[in-house]
Amino acid sequence: MYHYIFFDLDGTLTDSKEGILNCLRYAFEKLGKPVPPEAALIKFIGPPLQDSFVDPGGCTREEALAGIEAFRERYEPVGKFENVSAPGLPELCARLKKDGYVMALASSKPENLCVDICRHFGYTPSFSAVTGSPLHGDHSKADIIRETIRRLGLTDAEKPQILMVGDRKYDVAGAKECGIDCVGVEFFGYAAPGELAEAGAVAVVRSAAELEEFIRTH
User: Fold this and answer.
1) How confident is the model at residue 190 (pLDDT cuts 50, 70, 90)?
2) Catalytic residues
């Protein structure tokens, strides 16, 4: 039975599309590069920014670093709150916490932003750890998950009890690399059709109610 539930942030706990796209447009304009169409910008939601600026963003690694800095100029004071909670997720987390599940955030977003966003949208009381990327670093999703496991003091023997919850193939791949299961969520449609199942998600759910049923019955 799953007992430890790790959540992704963007596209899973919150719909961060408005803030991310506004800040990406700001970053490309500051770089002096053409702003990609919205369909391309949406692909930035989920993967680490340093990867997305290169592909699909078309930047060099050096431009990607400058793009990240420009993105953060707007995101940290404004964009992080251009965001809404996934329907029913704050309440679900509170119920799971009350019933003894141990939950944590495992996000590729810089940790200081994760802390602010979780507090703003009411997730902090439900989580035993809020783990994100260091401000300057190139952490993979697997790195973030490993750090979350470390912070909770979990061992290899407890890995069968850990479930990652995420909305993109990167969450599934990171979980698999760490030897844990991942359930995919399709709350906002950021994954391509079939992406999560093809990546190896143990299930794909489309609402907070479906997610709760899966967690409580596995």
Assistant:
1) confident
2) 8
